[in-house]
Amino acid sequence: MLKSFKNPIMSGFFPDPSIVRVEKDYYMVNSTFQYFPSIIISHSKDLVNWEHIGHVITKSEWLDLSRVNDSCGVWAADISYWQGVYYIFYSVITGEKGNTKSENYIVKSKTPEGPYSKPIKIWDGGFDPSHFIDDDGTHYMLINKGAKIIRLNSECTKAESKPVTLWEGSTGLSPEGPHLFKKDGYYYIVLAEGGTGWRHRITSARSKNLYGPYEESPHNPVLMQKDPDAPIQKTGHGKLFSAYDGSWWVVYLCSRPNSDRFCALGRETCLSPVSWTEDGWFIINEGKGPSEKHIAPDTGAQTRKQDYSDDFSADRLGAQWQFVRNPNNDMWSLTERKGFLRIKTAAADTNSRDAQNIILQRETQHRYTAVLKMEFKPEQNNEQAGLICYYGTKNYIKLCLIYEDGAKISLIENRAGDISRVALTGEIKSNVIYLRVETKGKLRRFSHSLDGVAWDMVGEIEDCNFLSDEGIKDDFNFTGTMVGMYANNGGTGRTINADFCKFEVF
Questions:
Q1: Residue 168 burial (10 A CB sphere; 0-12, 13-18, 19+)
Q2: Helices vs strands, H then E, count in the chain
Q3: Are 218 and 184 in contact (CB under 8 A)?
Q4: Residue extent(s) of CATH 2.115.10.20 domains in the chain
Q5: Catalytic annotation on 260?
Q6: Separation between Cα atoms, residue 148 and residue 332, nearest integer Å
Q7: C-alpha angle 147/480/224, rounded to 5°?
Q8: Which tens digit of pLDDT belongs to each residue from 366-425?
Q9: What's the rounded Cα separation, in Å, for the pair 184 and 237?
Q10: Euclidean distance between CA atoms 3 and 51, whole angstroms
């Protein structure tokens, strides 16, 4: 019996997917922007369920994110495989909108989960690099604008040519995310165009010669959402691949807006089937546009789906967790108190790029509940720790145990840089506290408990659309809402422990 699946296959902040198949195993990387460790790697055997197996860049000395703006940092990684080696290319973006700097790097490993080699910079300028190996074994890197190609040396450590434009795209609007593959004597270019908003799309062109000229596909855009009421929107930035059984597929990014057309979850990863016409052009989903449901590929295997709850009993953080920028590893621990994630209070608050050890994971659904159990004993005004729903330094909601002439529960929002208190309880006598957020679309309810059974409402925020791509009102909006925990000393200068022993998502 054929089984169906529902898009997206990677829910939440998993943009710019790149995929490679090695025998019967599939590996995917997604952009992580200002978050660390960088470039999340996931594995699947069935192409529908994915498990996070690590990150590409795990050493802070190899990537300084401390001063990058929100939604800058690591963009559009690409994974490939050649003769026993996994190659990952990526861009690092710094600066302000309209005045950004881009550098393109490569790392390598003999195992998909790493460890990966020290990054080597290949080229300044352009972004969204991808890797192509021709039939003769020559390596190339593609970058935008449009599809530009650079010949590399045999080790992929140095450019041996200047960029040559293969195809400028079909629309002239933000042609980026170039990929190149070869099939049946044709070189096929795949581009993302139209910007990453509502007019995002995938386009293609082909040529018998690597350097062209390229003929535009008569089916362009080969993927674009034209139904404004469809649940899957903003589709683009795709990469084609062949499955083990010979069938063809494409992974691509999408967004799922709520009823107000705000995308709190950011850009996610979808999967759709690819077919080929008699004259050698590819068509995605029979030309029907993005679909929420498809028949699952028959891989004969199944992958365990990622579990996002955590009891912090392991000696290392699960791959679902991310720090905001580079962490201070002296200020957090999984081993100082076994079975607890300990975060030590530091000076910088969550609205600062200097804030360290805010630890988060992706929100994956518009309706979910998260419960956090914490032990914390603040004794001076403004010392605080707790639960945070976080899009960036200017957009978040905190539910925290805070000292304000006594330990109390406070609900604080930062709405596009405007910080205000939503609610404050009376004094709390216990150092052990449960904190809960219940999310239903743009509505979020926050409550606390002393035993995890009886809950007291702290406050409700009816319109949380400021936690979305459309609501942040900043230069870039390329990530998505995250949820997790934090601790800071509120300016007291003290370093005390906030111990987290359970994080449940359901």
A1: middle
A2: 0, 38
A3: no
A4: 13-228
A5: no
A6: 43
A7: 45
A8: 999 999 999 999 999 999 999 999 999 999 999 999 999 999 999 999 999 999 999 999
A9: 23
A10: 20
pLDDT in tens, 81-116: 999 999 999 999 998 888 899 999 999 999 999 999
The domain at 13-228 falls in which architecture?
5 Propeller (2.115)
The single residue of 176, 193, 310, 383 carrying the catalytic annotation is: 176
Neighbours of 270 (CB within 10 A): 25
Looking at residue 437, what is its pLDDT?
A: 98
Q: How far apart are CA 155 and CA 487, in angstroms?
A: 44
Phi, psi dihedral angles at 464 (to 5 degrees):
-105, 25
Contact criterion met (CB below 8 Å) for 314 and 334: yes
Strands 85-96 and 73-82: antiparallel
Rounded CA separation 103/129 (Å): 10
Cβ neighbourhood burial of 231 (10 Å; 0-12, 13-18, 19+): middle
Which amino acid would we find at residue 133? I
At which residue do the structure tokens 């403004």 appear?
382
Sequence-distant (6+) residues with CB within 8 A of 308 are: 320, 361, 362, 364, 505
CB 116 within 8 A of CB 103: no
CATH 2.60.120.200 assigned to domain 322-505? The reply is yes
Q: Among residues 16, 128, 310, 383, which one is catalytic?
A: 16
Can you tell me the distance from the alpha carbon of 128 to that of 18, in angstroms, rounded to the nearest whole number? 11
How, if at all, do strands 51-57 and 38-44 pair? antiparallel
Catalytic-residue membership of 134: no
Residue 98 pLDDT: 80
Helix, strand, coil abundance in the chain, percent, nearest 5:
0, 50, 50
Q: For residue 266, which of 164, 87, 395 has the smallest C-alpha distance?
A: 395
For residues 124 and 139, what is the distance between their CA atoms, to the nearest angstrom?
A: 18
- Give 143-207 as a DSSP string: ETTTEEEEEB-TTSSSB-S--EEEE--SSSS--EEEEEEEETTEEEEEEEES-SSTT-EEEEEEE
Question: According to CATH, where is 2.60.120.200 located in the chain?
Answer: 322-505
